[in-house]
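Issue: ligand-bound run for FE2/S2 (inorganic) cluster - logging full I/O for the record.

Environment: standard queue, default settings, no custom constraints.

Inputs:
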Amino acid sequence: MITEEENRLICEVEGDAPMGQLMRHHWIPALMSEEIETDGKPVRVRLFGEDLVAFRDSNGDVGLIDEFCPHRGPSLYFGRNENCGLRCLYHGWKFDKDGNITEMPSEPPESQMKERIRIKAYPTHEAAGFVWAWMGPADEMSAFQAPPFAPDADTKVSITKIKVPCNWSQIQEGQIDSAHSSTLHSSDMVPARIESAGANNTHWTRPSTDKSPRIFTQRTPYGFRYVAVRRPIKNARTNDYLRITVYVAPFISLIPPNDSYNVCSINVPVDDKNTFFYFVAWGDENCIDTDEWRAFNHAVVGKDLNTDYSTKRTLDNDFLQDRDAMAAGNFTGVPGIPNQDIIMWVSMGAWPERQEDHLGASDLAVVEFRKLMVEAVKAFKDGSQPAIGTTQSVIPHRDIRSWQGIVTKDADWTQFGVGDIEAEALGHTKTEAS
Ligand code: FES
Ligand SMILES: [Fe+2]
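Outputs:
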């Protein structure tokens, strides 16, 4: 049973909160690259309770700086993005991407003031469709490594972005909760007499009707893997259907793939009660296109989402749930897999009261997440361990994979989906997909 204090350790990410500080020891996906154009409009980016603005300067480089001008405090979101810097409209102070003040037209030319003042600026790196930021201590900045959803520079990545009004950890627990997919998403993840999970324009298919998977977990240097074992529709006497999900601490999850693309989620805290949820499809040229992916998820800006990526479906309008559609056979009355999840996450309250939960056998991976992250954040807080996932470079993120498939009942699930390096690190040999 989790205590109130442990719950706070998992949830709190603002200011000096240890979980927020732990996360800052990883490169953070701050926004999507597509959100900012060279010399174009800046965008507001709130992360870990800090209000920032991002802009792309005349060289195409990204600045991520304090939203508020250090002179007298107006928002730089309204500033001019020109000639390699963002200029405050009030008195024209101008800031470059590194936080230097390059012009101070309201001060006399001989003034030394601009050498003495800086604006807060975080280093950035672009990869896999994201602008990543280093928000941890400058002297502990790690080398950027390819994320698990873009192992190669030419990996096709399609991103759905949604701002969700709840704590990051509720969303994270949804990503490692295979059991809910057979119920909440039952109208979109449809059982079929197939050999392996599939995807088309309207729904996903899976070779099982089993709603109560048996869950087993395995810790790894980067987090943990777990399997959900289901009865397959075909040959249930001799075979099992395995869905292996991977948690790459602190905020990335690799969801089992289908026959067209892989799926990944990332939860980036906006503050204690809001989160940017990124749902990523990735793979080779067969991977779904970005526009199709957003349409499939019913998460299109202008239609389903506001320009700040918040949803038009909210608690106040009952998420526009369609009871007639439910009566006609749709399970939730809400289209789009993420939208169905969002109703669950947000209706729990923006801050989870985990002490009230009644966990069952299907919640084993959720329990493992809570145990792992409470241990990790306590060890980070007291200085006995570095931030989880920052010391073990032995398994590069680009080699980590989720997996799904039908195997014989005597098969050892831990051997499926691991690459050569991971198999060696975990001390077993790799088994190819059957
Ligand atoms: S308040 Fe920004 S330049 Fe004066
Ligand atoms: Fe879900």
